[in-house]
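Researcher: Next sequence.
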Amino acid sequence: MIISLKRLVALKLRRSRRYRPRNNLFVILEHSRAKNPVGDISMGGLSFYYLDKGLKIGKGSYELKLAPSNGPPLSGVTFTTVSDNETGQLIFQKQKIKRHSVRFENLTKDQKTRLKFIINQCSAP
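Model: Next structure:
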């Protein structure tokens, strides 16, 4: 399997280890009731999948709310968009699904504590 040089460099430059959620962990965007599944999560950011309906997701336009299956949600998370890419047609043939990656910014001490708890409870070892 060929891995691009850019991907290898990006993996070595990560500050925080990424975890795959084992339990149900969702992102709920402001003004939406849709639960978008989380692809991976770390103390520095996360990625999630969503159905593209033409809305732009940008800093300040939405609020991220992490909703684990157990416990209260983590809301009011400020973020910066890192990437917003469409997934392949082989996975979702009749829907336009995108993978959105964000980096957290200015988390409070309480938000960091709650995020650590969510990662410990919802991620695979």
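Model: The radius of gyration is 15 Å. Helices lie at 5-13, 109-122.
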